Amino acid sequence: MNPEPLLQLDRVIHERGRLAIMSMLAASPELSFIELRAALEMTDGNLTTHIRSLQEAGYVSVAKSYRKKRRLTTVSMTPAGREAFTGYLALLEQIVREAKPR
Q: pTM for this structure?
């Protein structure tokens, strides 16, 4: 197997927590911080750190607003994030195809 595709994996997305966040956002236009935290069973600090890494890479955007006088933080995938995630999945599919026994 050619190791080159493995070296090309996006390290920002490849980390388990960030991959989970990106996977959830790929299926939904936006999710609240609370929805992500509950679904992924992460602590506030852990989720915040992963979202910040994705935000710094330009893969997600974060919006803060109020709903019923309570602060609401929502996260959505950016076009750059969708492109990076699609490329990441394509690369994983290539790795799996090459790793299958013939």
A: 0.91
